[in-house]
Design brief:
The chain is of the alpha+beta class and 121 residues long. The model has no long low-confidence stretch (mean pLDDT 79). Keywords: Electron transport, Membrane, Mitochondrion, Mitochondrion inner membrane, Respiratory chain, Transit peptide, Transport.
Length: 121
């Protein structure tokens, strides 16, 4: 038995699809804090009562689950929670970006194909 039957949640939630992903770091964040968390977001409903606020231009929605986010320590925990709730889910794997090693001396290496740093003042 799934947990949504016991929890008393509305029946519309039973067959919603959710996305399980690992969010990217904030651009202002240089450290690895919160970089290993996984998150569940609800997909936007088609025809879910979306409208644009004429005064501010903000997009509004009648979907009350659109702003709901649940975070987990691992991908397996998020998958287990989605299965327990009876939700359809898909996992979006994170892109692994390789950062090439750099050092200060590479700025002054001589290479025929590239220009060196030149100071005019």
């Amino acid at each position: 038995m799934t947990a949504d039957v016991v929890s008393g949640a509305p029946s519309e939630l039973r067959h919603r699809s959710v996305r399980i992903y690992q969010p990217t770091r904030n651009t202002m964040q240089s450290g690895p804090n919160k970089g290993d968390r996984w998150r569940i977001d609800f997909d936007v409903l088609l025809g879910g009562g979306r409208w644009e606020n004429p005064l501010m231009g903000w997009a509004s929605s009648a979907d009350y689950m659109q702003g709901t986010r649940v975070s987990f320590r691992s991908k397996e925990d998020a998958i287990h929670f989605a299965e327990k709730q009876g939700w359809d889910y898909y996992v979006q794997l994170p892109e692994v970006k390789r950062v090439p090693p750099k050092n200060y001396a590479e700025n002054y290496l001589y290479r025929k194909e590239t220009l060196r740093i030149m100071r005019t003042k």
